[in-house]
């Protein structure tokens, strides 16, 4: 929702939220919370279905939150068989099969690839989800998977991976973030500016997140934890033409953390970068370093 030209439905949402915010900040905060907790549904393309059909499919049960032990059913997918496991994390509204070219390349290079439908995505359980839940789920899956050679996350999946390695007692040798956001508060702030939502709504939103998720929104900001990501090495790949994750934000992040390796390309955008040959080759080389 960072593009300058908004579709009509979003323009109407922006108009309504900007008018509601001043007289009803609590209600506006709840609407925004619901918007950002409900991922869009999507239909898989035939090429993605073909990749899914080659996977070993299994179900897994995890708890929903650290404070909620109710079971949450996830659908997991595996390709290859190797002592070197790589875990793939799709983005918000995404699918594991968005990685189809990466999956083929990793398996051909001798890796076992593991991925899953995030909560409220694909065949996994749930209608709403959030980064706090994603972090809790990833922690459990990393603990169950045993030694993992690397984690590759696209978009919000990349932010999820990094935040999990910050806040949870897990670590990995390699982390790859592809077109990844680096700050949930920045995403919300950009939405507030774009929708012209009155500033008094933000404290209500933070309070809502604290009450429902037992977490502070500021904990979801990598800029505050830039030296605490428990990964042996980190690679960030991004595109100058990405309209969802701004290049300037990634550049600033990398300047503050010069030990992170990076690959900047131009012309693929937020989604096509995942099938870019130069990106896939760099990821494979990085995993082997």
TrEMBL record:
UniProt keyword annotations, A-Z: Hydrolase
Gene Ontology MF, one: hydrolase activity
Domain (AB hydrolase-1): residue spans on this chain: 86-210
Keyword Phosphoprotein belongs to the record: no
Protein name listed in UniProt: Alpha/beta hydrolase family protein
InterPro entries xrefs: AB_hydrolase_1, AB_hydrolase_fold, Carboxylesterase_BioH
Presence of the UniProt keyword Chloroplast in the record: no
Domain of life: Bacteria
